[in-house]
Design goal:
The chain is an alpha/beta fold and 157 residues long. The chain has one domain: Rossmann fold. It contains 6 helices and 5 strands, in the order E-H-E-H-E-H-E-H-E-H-H.
Length: 157
């Protein structure tokens, strides 16, 4: 049976840091399902359909990566895809406390699903979707920090 990991997030927009986490996840898992969270309460720049489209286009041609939209519990998404793990990226020590709390809660909800943390490559420790949105909205060039498919979406905003 293939080992599947779920990589959840808002991906608003997807960055090269996210892409790096997926590629490194594929070294550990046979399949990575990217769960694009539909959480309008966070006030995303892009609607969920657009974010899903950007993620799918980024991994077009990669048969072991799938992107799906979800709302609700992450463990339910994991169950639906028969995932053995939740994949998460960490950029800095400050990310760890929040991620640790989420991993602990997810383990409480289903102890069979592990959380696997991947440390960000040094090139991406400073990259966040929030910074990408802010810089882009002020006319800054973020083309070296996001997949090429994302650039026109940001320019349109």
């Amino acid at each position: 049976m293939k080992k599947t990991a779920i990589y959840p997030g808002t991906f608003d927009p997807i960055t090269l840091g996210h892409v790096d986490v997926v590629k490194r996840g594929l070294k550990m898992f046979d399949r990575v399902v990217i769960g694009v969270a539909d959480n309008p309460g966070k006030g995303p720049m892009f609607d969920v359909e657009t974010r899903l489209s950007m993620v799918r286009e980024t991994f077009k041609g990669e048969p072991n990566v799938e992107a799906v939209c979800f709302n609700g519990l992450l463990v339910d998404l994991a169950h639906g895809h028969q995932a053995a793990a939740i994949l998460r990226g960490l950029r800095a020590a400050s990310d760890f406390e929040y991620e640790f709390q989420m991993a602990t809660m997810n383990r409480r909800l289903d102890e069979r699903i592990e959380t696997v943390f991947v440390m960000a490559r040094e090139d991406y420790t400073f990259v966040s979707s929030r910074f990408i949105r802010e810089i882009s909205s002020m006319g800054g060039d973020v083309s070296e920090l996001v997949p090429p498919v994302v650039v026109p979406f940001l320019a349109a905003k």
